[in-house]
Amino acid sequence: MSGTSLDxxxxxxxxxxxxxxxxxxxxxxxxxxxxxxRKLQLLIVNQASNLQDLGEIxxxxxxxxxxxxxxxxxxxxxxxxxxxxxxxxxxxVFHSPLGEFPFSLQxxxxxxxxxxxxxxxxxxxxxxxIAAGGQGAPLVPAFHQSLFRTVNEDRVIVNIGGIxxxxxxxxxxDGSVIGFDTGPGNVLLDYWTKLKLNKPYxxxxxxxxxxxxxxxILRTLLDEAYFKQAIPKxxxxxxxxxxxxxxxxxGYKQEIPPSDIQATLTELTAQTIANDISTYAKSYSSVFICxxxxxxxxxxxxxxxxxxxxxxxxxxALGLHPDWVEAGAFAWLAYRTINNKTGxxxxxxxxxxxxxxxxxxxx
Length: 363
Ligand SMILES: Nc1ncnc2c1ncn2[C@@H]1O[C@H](COP(=O)(O)OP(=O)(O)OP(=O)(O)O)[C@@H](O)[C@H]1O
Ligand SMILES: [Mg+2]
Fold this sequence. Notes:
Elements: E1 9-16, E2 22-30, H1 34-45, H2 51-75, E3 86-87, E4 91-96, E5 103-107, H3 110-117, E6 121-123, H4 125-131, H5 140-148, E7 155-160, E8 163-169, E9 178-184, H6 187-197, H7 206-210, H8 215-222, H9 225-228, H10 242-249, H11 258-280, E10 286-290, H12 297-306, E11 311-314, H13 325-338, H14 346-349, E12 359-361
Parallel strand pairs: 3-6, 7-10, 10-11
Antiparallel strand pairs: 1-2, 4-5, 6-12, 7-8, 8-9
Helix pairs in contact: 1-2, 2-3, 5-13, 6-11, 8-11, 11-12
Bound molecules: adenosine-5'-triphosphate and magnesium ion (MG).
């Protein structure tokens, strides 16, 4: 899994019993080599690549994913025959789920991953859901349901990656699972931290905590059609990016301390998540966070303050470390595919029916 934050490739080795019981064995994040990172930035963040670049990055990423998997397996003294399959999400280049020709494009050549590892590889998970009329995203709620749903309490799972998505898991079997992207997670926080401090992210949210939220700017940021859009919905860097930030901040940023902007952007992430939880999960008592945002203490504190009637914890409390939920989800989705089981939730993506996701590249 390589998410919108472009912070590396997460490789998770998981075990799934015949009944589908999930266990994380080991996981590691592999950094992008500097040259590939720059090319990915040009392609995805700046949208300044040509078709040859796109083709080459697809291959370079496939090589890196394959070799990262081999490295992780070698450290575990395992080889290809020990592994049933790889689920590779790849790197999203562009996500455009609406309009006459909806599509979602992920790269990281799966033929090459199968060739390098000698392991059957499942990829292109989003396309079939889109073909069935869905958004192709988010796909993780089905995994959240399988792993975290209980009859004992209503639960909200929040994944704060580059983009944030929430999953509502009602205790009652009558209630259907709802899930959607709430909007920005870390993507704007990372953008501003890189621009002003030349650091990849705001460690623990300390910089944001040192600033003061500017309520006038916050209102401007919250005035975004996506936040009011009906579900199902999904989004990405195509909307929440440098340009979005610059447009919203135009006329403000000169006189306002950068730490106040960071505090305001963090408040935007916290409030958009909290608003959606209050709207769709008013009576729910428990919220579990995963994704890199779980390490942002200031963001976690703001979420707890905004949702003071709810208990907030990370998914570690449910037995899965918040860093590995996304990667674990694509292992689980691969397991579904090779067992001919459906992987999407139409109540989440808006697809007309459940479908078996992905394309299988045999070992
Ligand atoms: N210690 C930390 N303090 C603050 N923020 C952190 C910390 N560690 C990670 N993060 C944030 O988490 C981000 C990475 O999170 P994650 O890997 O879940 O996102 P992603 O790769 O974009 O995934 P997704 O597919 O969910 O969009 C980093 O870019 C950073 O903003
Ligand atoms: Mg990541």
